[in-house]
Structures are given as structure tokens and as C-alpha cells.
Amino acid sequence: RIGGILVITLNCIEVNGSYKARRVLAEDVVEFCIGELMPRMKTLWVDVTLRSMKGEDATGLCLQGDTNRDFYLDIKQALSEEEFIETVCHEMIHVWQGATKKMAEKLDKQLWLCKDGKYRNYTNCSYMRQPWEVEAYRMQSGLLKKFKESNYYVK
User: Which helix (H) or strand (E) holds 48?
Assistant: First the structure.
């Protein structure tokens, strides 16, 4: 409530690049993941760009914007449908980690909220040992399976 007025905000999902069916699929996966991982969050801004990512050693990237509600995803457009969905799920797990402050960025350092409630720097850890990647890889196939069983998925 602001000054006695009830203010309702909704998550904003914007998808650019590739072709229409792929943009629609990306938006559906993002919306599904928000519902699964962050059902009570209503102030997220997720901007997805589908692009070639030629010469990059990744199929997806997630960057946090100015706040823990602003996120930019880059997804490789030339993936099989299953890889595409799984990649969007993986990057949305990073959105969840950032939005819930499990993962934070400070002075170009990637920090992880540990069980003792303190943030620790894992920036120099190898990619597959970074705790946010371990968690994302562990969760992505379950999200993919749930998405494919949901009403969001139209084959």
C-alpha cells in the first residue's frame, strides 16, 4: 500500500532475438520457473536475449542488474528444444539464487551465502566447483522434467 492505495506489481519478462516460437518457449519456461522457484515474487524483471553465442564457451549466461530483482539472460538460440529448455531452467536457477540473495556480487567477486549465514568468495574456484553451479546443475533436470509435464509445454 502506498498512501492508502493498493499497488499490485507483476513480474516482467522480455524476450528478444531468434524466431517467434523460440521466444514464446523461452517466455513460457521463464514464467514456469518463476512459479516453481519464486511463486511469491512479483517484482522481477527478466530480460532474455536469444543469440548465437558464437565463440563463447557457454550455452547460457545470467547477469544481475542494479538490484536483486533485475536479471539479464543470454541463451544460445541454436540448441535442440530439450537443451534450450534445460539451459533456460539452469539460468533461472541463477535468477532464483540472486533474487533470494543466496548468491551476491560485490566488487567483481561472486559470493555465496553459506550455512553459517556468512558470504564467502568462490570466484577463483573452478566453474564446476562453484556452489551456485553445483546447485544449478543438480536442480536443472528436475525443472526440465516438471516443465515438460506442465500445461506450459505444448509439443
Answer: strand 45-51
Give the whole-angstrom CA distance, residue 52 versus residue 2. 43
Which residue from 75, 14, 26, 32 is spatially nearest to 50, judged by alpha carbons?
A: 75
- Per DSSP, helices labelled H in the chain are 20-37, 81-99, 131-149
pTM for this entry: 0.92
Answer yes or no: are the C-beta atoms of 135 and 115 closer than 8 Å. Answer: no
For 131, how many CA atoms within 13 A lie in the half-sphere containing its CB? 15
| Dihedral angle sign, alpha carbons of residues 126, 132, 133, 135 | positive
Q: What is the CA radius of gyration of the chain?
A: 16
How many C-beta atoms surround the C-beta of residue 113 within 10 A? 16
pLDDT tier for residue 70 given thresholds of 50, 70 and 90: very high
Query: Between β-strands 119-121 and 109-113, what pairing exists: parallel, antiparallel or unpaired?
Result: antiparallel
